[in-house]
UniProtKB/TrEMBL annotation:
This is Heavy-metal-associated domain-containing protein. It holds the Pfam family HMA. Residues 25-91 form the HMA domain. Keywords: Signal.
Length: 112
C-alpha cells in the first residue's frame, strides 16, 4: 500500500511540473497612443479580459502598456489586435526602445 501511495505521489509531482511548464508567462510592452484617463479606463476595463492575460500596467504619461500573459493562451499579435479593436494603435516596444523614452502628448485619433 505504501508503494502505491509513493508511486501516485511521484506521478502527481511529475504531472504538476509538466503543467507548470505549459503555463509559462511572458511580458510585452506596447507603445499605445492614449491621451487621457478615459483611455486608461477603457484599456483597464477590456484588456485584462482577453484570453491569457495575467497582468496589466498602464502608464499614461509614458504612453506604455505592459501586459503579462500566458504563452499557451495568447501571443503578442493577438494582444496587439485587442488594442486595435478598442481603437488604439499598439506597437511593441523592443528592449532597446524601452530604454529610450519618447514623449509625444498630442491628441491622437481614436474612439473614446
Amino acid at each position: 500500500m505504501k508503494k502505491l501511495l509513493v508511486i501516485v505521489f511521484m506521478a502527481m509531482m511529475v504531472f504538476n511540473i509538466n503543467a507548470k511548464d505549459k503555463k509559462k508567462t511572458a511580458e510585452v510592452i506596447f507603445k499605445v497612443e492614449m491621451d487621457c484617463q478615459g483611455c486608461v479606463k477603457k484599456i483597464n476595463k477590456n484588456i485584462p479580459f482577453e484570453k491569457g492575460v495575467k497582468g496589466l500596467k498602464v502608464d499614461l504619461e509614458g504612453q506604455k502598456v505592459t501586459v503579462n500573459y500566458r504563452e499557451d493562451k495568447t501571443n503578442k499579435e493577438a494582444l496587439k489586435k485587442a488594442f486595435e479593436e478598442l481603437g488604439y494603435k499598439a506597437v511593441e516596444i523592443k528592449e532597446e526602445d524601452h530604454k529610450a523614452d519618447s514623449a509625444g502628448n498630442d491628441h491622437h485619433n481614436h474612439k473614446h
